[in-house]
Write a structure and sequence with these properties.
Two copies of one chain form a homodimer. Chain A is α+β, with helices and mostly antiparallel strands. Chain A contains nine helices and 15 strands. A seven-stranded mixed beta sheet of chain A has the order 10-12-9-13-11-14-15. In chain A, β3 and β4 form a beta hairpin. In chain A, α2 runs parallel beside α3, α4 crosses α5 and α4 crosses α8. The radius of gyration of chain A is 19 Å and the shape is globular. The relative contact order of chain A is 0.16. Chains A and B meet through β1, α1, β5, β6 and α3 of A and β1, α1, β5, β6 and α3 of B.
Chain lengths: 350, 350
Amino acid sequence: VAEGSAGRPSPQGAPRDAPSPPRGRVLLGRGGEFDLIRRFLAADESDLPAEVHLGPGDDAALLDGGWVVSTDLSVEDVHFRRRWLTDREIGYRAAAAALSDLAAMAARPVGVLLSLALPPAAEVDAEEVQAGVREAATSVGAVVIGGDLSASPGPLVLDVVVVGRAERARLRVGARPGDEVWVTGALGASAAAVALWERGDEPAQVLRAAFAHPVPRVGVGSALAALGEGALVALVDVSDGLAGDAGHLAAAGGVRVVLEVGSIPVAGAARTALGEAGALEAALYGGEDYELLFASRPGAFERAAAEGAAGLPLTRVGRVEQGKGVWLERVDGSVVPVARGGFSHVEEGP
Amino acid sequence: VAEGSAGRPSPQGAPRDAPSPPRGRVLLGRGGEFDLIRRFLAADESDLPAEVHLGPGDDAALLDGGWVVSTDLSVEDVHFRRRWLTDREIGYRAAAAALSDLAAMAARPVGVLLSLALPPAAEVDAEEVQAGVREAATSVGAVVIGGDLSASPGPLVLDVVVVGRAERARLRVGARPGDEVWVTGALGASAAAVALWERGDEPAQVLRAAFAHPVPRVGVGSALAALGEGALVALVDVSDGLAGDAGHLAAAGGVRVVLEVGSIPVAGAARTALGEAGALEAALYGGEDYELLFASRPGAFERAAAEGAAGLPLTRVGRVEQGKGVWLERVDGSVVPVARGGFSHVEEGP
């Protein structure tokens, strides 16, 4: 079923002409095999019991009472390599990535469950992995509420389940033509670290930290939502690269998203490491920045106030139009669909 | 960290003098290393937010609004071997095992999330694995509400998250001296199938089915609870063998459980395959029967009515006394602690 990364696990290839697929995801065939995964997850909404308010397809499921649940795999040599990270960082990073899915629902983290499959003795310090998971949970006010443990005959595998609560969850759906598209923080540093490691270099500390110690943007969603009715109308996290996650907003809203290349907040250290073009590729297609991407009604908030509420830089990176897919407005003013890749949301261009 | 099964994954060794450890669990050192896992999961209850009614330590976490959440790993060559099962059975079994944790809380299954790490292409039919998970979910009225997907550089790994709801969850804690101890169904067939496979034989169909197609006992808990106030005062599922799970009841209740060897409902096909002594070992220490084990106040229900409500045979297998640990009352009337093993709950004997 899986092709490419399944047989040859690699967190990332170097930037190429075609965008890299999102790291950590199986490269499924363009047609039937990716569809089968979507079919599995896309339950017929009419089948959902009333107490499940939202099933698969968003960043997390939404249950009666405002409970939000998501699960996130981290597999050695697919999502990370052990030589890049300490055991504690492996745990922290897996949990932070999972917690980002709660941020992407504007949910408050409550609990974390860790399923841990441990390779043969002495290779991994399980206590350190667990300490990293607990560190990430504690950093956002969550507690460990369960887990499972097994041996693994091969890689270290973590599956982190996160449970949160949202008075009013924000979904991927909601963007409409005329909306602004905003992103928190800066992009591309995590992918730049991976690119350097994979070519045998050691990334600068700021790049390494972006990969090893991402900060889930919890609290940002609710802070923005509090700024006014239209301030936050659709929300995802940036885990698959800006282009990929803009594709989620576009697909969910039945709209097209135009990203303005000159506005994308590419991390300065990524520029230094990869050059202008390479860093832009990393921001668009690299993934695992764990920032938030959201749509706002035009002029729904004042940037200074919003940045104060979010505690982070906010950058308007594009706009919502009628159509579908993700498009890039180049600095010369031309508008082109994002390059086609193995990633279906990106294929919905023209 | 892990010893034994981590370096040499094996779903089960043949029955030995010492009880086999629960299959599918890492053999952790007797002291510090098992403790560290427990420390990780045993959050200080005072740290739990009010909306988490029960954290780690039971079969599942219990959240505000009656929501119940648990997660369960199934790792190739630890929990199963691919040559034993079809891909669909691998999915079914992993989900059924996870759903059993909801049964063990007397919770009604609502949703399932599947994290799936797939080995290199063409080895596993992912659609069949998914179909098996969906089959198990559907069989108990649950729907698929999410999941994650990754390549695996080694084994097939499934982590199944189950979400259920209980008006009144039943916990491990609650048994007190004088209570009766009951079990649903028959025990030992699943472990007998594994023992046969591991020695190169093919198990009889009924044994194979016990391993490949366990039926989570959902609904049994609430049916029993409805029979009267004291009918169901403490509840676990039998996933670690009768002795191991009786140890959970004993530890949680601060009591000792005396299992009456002559009363244990050993599966007939397990007797045929392993002989009397081997089948009893399988029932006590083999695990993965996914029946329910519970304590009742003396005479709190009438068996015929209870069996009608549960839709299953019920067998009184023992009694609760002051003390700690799990003890066996042999047919000759002598009472001995269960043999020591790698399993801490069993070590709490005298």
